[in-house]
Amino acid sequence: MHIDEENWFKDHPSGVLHFQHLLKGEPESPDNYMYVLAKQVGEWSMPRHRHNFEQIRIPLVGSNTTYGRGVELKEGQIGYFPEGLSYGPQESPLTDLKPGEPLALALQFGGSSGYGFMSIEQRRTAMRELVEAGGKFEGALYVSPEGRRQWGLNTVWQHVFGERLKYPRPRYQHPVIADPERFNWLPVEGAKGVDHKFMGSFSERGVRIEMVRLRPGVRWTSIDPGAQRILTVLSGEAGCEGEDLRYLSTLRADAGEQLELATSDASEAEILLIGLPPVVLPEAASRSTTSTPTPTRTSPCTSIPASEDEAACGVRSCRVRHLRCSSGALVPTTGRPCSARSDTGTRRHGSAPSEAPRPASARPRTGPIAGRCPATSSRPSSTMPTGACSGPWTAAARVRWPRCATP
User: Fold this and answer.
1) pTM for this structure?
2) Predicted local distance difference test score (pLDDT) of residue 186
């Protein structure tokens, strides 16, 4: 695959990032991916957000994009953004660059959770159908025919798959930024004149990122029996099975497929290599891999419909999912109290409004989040480790539970 200067698509919600699609995976597969070259033609920004897929980003020209909370990806660096991890707000001024000058490579792909990656064709079709139904897209948001505003990708996902978009719990606490300049070139065993910089392998899937350097006049056989590979020339020239490779030429090789690359006596080449092993789903997923804990069959706590969250907890515009226990207590699945602005002030679970208190029968019962005993509303005498529980409280994961003085 070579760059075609006439083949750009406006597939980013900002409208000012134009994509050239280099490679695509298999739609409906957990291994699906999209590999693009992005060209920025204007300034743009995005609020803090997250995805249910993974990303690898490489700015080729320009260090003008920041990702919030001190995360900055500079020209030549490589960023890994795990699935489920929030980042942003993104800010991307042109600074001293001209429109069209900032360039970056971006690989978006299904992660270890198995949620996969929605193809660009599915996304385009869904957006067109949603607009035809009377809605409209305003940047990253979708405005329904009734005027309701919501995150656009969530709406598109639900339109395509018929269910709400779910996010896995992030396996990493922050994006991972690697600076290739600080890595050493090490010889590739059994390949004279070939060096590499290994920059990391991520999640249980083992996605790997490395740079490979072919010195002048060498041949290198690339093969991996367990992973699909994406190779992109970042500098120099090389050849592969009679085809000339130059700047940003991109190759794909399936697991077990052999590639023969060679450089002339007058040139060398540096190649970005990304290894994508297949997604393997476990027989039993970790308790912390899903964003909404599901109670077990023996648990006295059950989830309630999303539409009932606000009515159940009494917090206006509450976006937290809840569990209703047999004791009548309400437990947020986030491990934190609900908090939102209502007509009578900011309220949390276990506290009444500052004005116009609700009847005792209508108040949500205090749960373990508030640090009080469900039965007596007294302070606990001690706390148990995270994840442990006593009495009827057995469903909500990752919550600190009180051990009360009374049984």
Assistant:
1) 0.71
2) 98
